[in-house]
Amino acid sequence: MAKKKVRARPSSDLLKLLATRPRAVALAALHVSESVLLELEASELLSAAEIRGLLKDASMTLRNAAEQADNRSCLVASEIVDSMRENFKRNKT
Question: Residues 72-87: pLDDT tens digits?
């Protein structure tokens, strides 16, 4: 039987940092996500076309959320994901 991994809770210092630096958190998440996608392609777990499809789906989900909740942040996030997709397409063709 496999042993379950126990995830440690973030420290209070980390939680305070996350709360006071939302732009930095978003930027870190963006770069980590992009790195994961590049690694998935490099290790041939996903093709470039599959990654572009994943980014397109994410963008559409954000765009739909923006329309339903009139949420400007979701719309901007959708535009960022679209930009990532375009850059990925440009660099892979």
Answer: 889 999 999 999 998 8
